[in-house]
Fold this sequence. Notes:
Elements: H1 5-19, E1 22-26, E2 32-35, H2 46-54, E3 58-60, E4 72-79, E5 82-90, H3 93-96, H4 100-136, H5 144-154, E6 158-164, H6 178-185, E7 191-195, E8 200-205, H7 210-217, E9 226-229, H8 239-249, H9 267-272, H10 275-286, H11 291-306, H12 311-318, H13 322-336, H14 343-354
Antiparallel strand pairs: 1-2, 1-5, 3-4, 4-5, 6-8, 6-9, 7-8
Helix pairs in contact: 11-12, 11-13, 12-13
Amino acid sequence: MDIPVNLAQNIVKTIEANIGYHINFMDKNGVIIASSDPDRIGDIHEVSVIVLRTKREFITTAEMTYKHSREGIDLPVEVDQEIIGTIGITGKVAAVKLFGPIIKSMSELLIKNYLSDNERHYLVERERLLVEHLLFSSNIQLTPDEEKRLVQLTQKPTAVVVWKSPIDVAHKFEMVDLFPYLKRMLQFEPHVISVSTDEIILIISTTVSEQRLKEIWKSSYLSDFVMGIGLPIEAHGDLIASYKMAEFIVSDLKDSSRFSYRHLKDEYLLATANPIAKKQYHTALFQNISPEDYQMIVELLDSYERCNGSIKQMAKELFVHKNTVQYRLNRITELTGYNPRNLSNFYYLKLGLKTSDY
């Protein structure tokens, strides 16, 4: 690997501030890429070339004559058993020799921390691209591991969960810190997650309960966020519908009580006229009803509306006894949980029938 110049310069500044001696950092070719003395940057450090070849430290004494190397000690810098450059400390050998192992260890530690941080940012960005791929069909080159993850995720019904905050939370923590927390909480569940400064999007299997999502939501990380759970989707090509519903739920950032698609009745349907919403609304009302009972509901509610709720008029229109009308009204309540004699319940039932063309 090649060390970025800005990282090498940061290493030089950090070590120099701690030990008070001039420091040079050389790349894999022995070129000085960072130095306490800016005039030396770009020079070939002859001793560094020797260290790279021998893979051992080298002490330069005052008697040695090298054009771009001065008295001091130079050591190989290794990461994952690969020598990626060398670092040198300039000064009287007797004074600086003891600092050799220290500057080597500090350099390697700073590089490992840099790589770890870069890897974390890479994983966050890669996961965001997977979410966009599923929601918006964006083209990305998937790795075999990513393909396997997406197959595991989409072979069962999935839902989109959205978290948004009504306030600026950037001052509390880096949003990227949320990523490892959420990955730990969901490590045993098929999912992908996008974490950005204004929105968290989770695509997850519906085998994960709403109660589990609420527990994750209770974390101090998410205490300032509103959560929205979209409806379950069987065909992953329709996931955008679940996402839009979750977005609709969190659109009111002051209301955290209505956090799931289960809490929506007509407002999302009327606001969007979305065919997926129509299906969801209709299914919620009539999913366990036989065709015969469904036809009875259609006929009875139509008659109830025409007759303005008059049982006597309905019996006459339907050619049945009044007790039969009463029985069928009660039957509708048993089947759907909605009482057609209640004006608001009647409205929901009629709206459900209007969605029957989904």
